[in-house]
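Late entry, pyridoxal-5'-phosphate complex.
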Amino acid sequence: MSGQDRTDEMKAREEASIVQTYTRQPLFIVRGSGARVWDGNGKEYLDFVAGIAVNNVGHCHPLVVEAIKSQAEKLIHTSNLYYTENQILLAEELKRLTGMDRAFYCNSGAESVEAAIKLARRATGRSGLVAAEASFHGRTLGALGATYKSMYREPFRPLNEACFVPYNDVEALKGAVDQNTSAVILEPVQGEGGVHVPSPDYLRAARDISHDAGALLILDEVQTGFGRTGKWFGKEHSGVLPDIMTLAKALAGGLPMGAMLAAESVSEVFQRGDHASTFGGGALVSAAALATIRVIREEGLVKRSEELGAGLRSELGKLPHREVRGLGLMVGLEVDADCGQVVAAAREKGVLLNNTSQNVLRLVPPLVVSREDVDSVVKVLGEILG
Ligand SMILES: Cc1ncc(COP(=O)(O)O)c(C=O)c1O
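Prediction complete; structure with ligand written out below:
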């Protein structure tokens, strides 16, 4: 059966068996390695989507695969009723990397945001949230309340909805944070909203405004974490230590894992039983996360993200465009074209891209991508946009 037939077959079977919440592209992926994936026909694609900013160390990195294999032979899951060492080693590593004090493990970005919202409510005794316009924090009921697009929220009201203010607007934040605010929640660079980079002072101002009102600052680093922006974490661009930080996506090299990190003074308000997750911090995902962090460090991927990202943005700036935005290898290209069509044309030419809206392409390749691969993606985009 040909690759196209297999794609058609998958589409039909998926439509008959899976809840239809996703808009999928006609591509059936069977294998991945480094910055590349292959379809059922053996056709190769340069993957500048990377599982939506998940595969920072590339697909099936040998060290991550080895860590998963050897851990799977020893212990996969036991629950949090007992001690296991990998999750402790990982918390120690995350503390060193972020400057935060304690970790709580979960299984996704939205869950890490849920944990953060609960902790902020517990720590302040307040329920209000302030979030940014164009924000995305996930689709569980708590996280959804802080996610901007009203078409995501509207069908699920009533929610505990945030007060939304324009991103990167200090005065608007000042006007919104009050005695009912438990936390201000912000992405250090907005991802789903179209790759928006704030001015360096914005997050510092957000922390001061929150603290002056007795509220907390939550930085959602689900997408910006682990080298994506050319620093280990997006917060480093502004030198801000938040009260709570959320992580997921790239954390475990492609396995589902999330973490909420908190400052000691905040985390100590959580009592035993206040929050939990059956799978959180399991031995297998924690081993994958430890290996992922090791790869990022040993292969110098943070620096690589900074350098390749700067080169990519500069080359994209030579193509027809409205704006090039981003930090490191988290890049947005706003164009006067229908990006749905650009994504489809690029896929035909063997390049996977993502668009966050009609006019914005988001490029978030694996940080292991080569300069030649970056150049060839720019060339393909040049052919399409030109
Ligand atoms: C900043 C941010 N927070 C939270 C989420 C939700 O993560 P998940 O899809 O793992 O629940 C995302 C997902 O794109 C995100 O970009």
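The longest strand covers residues 181-186. Will revisit in the morning.
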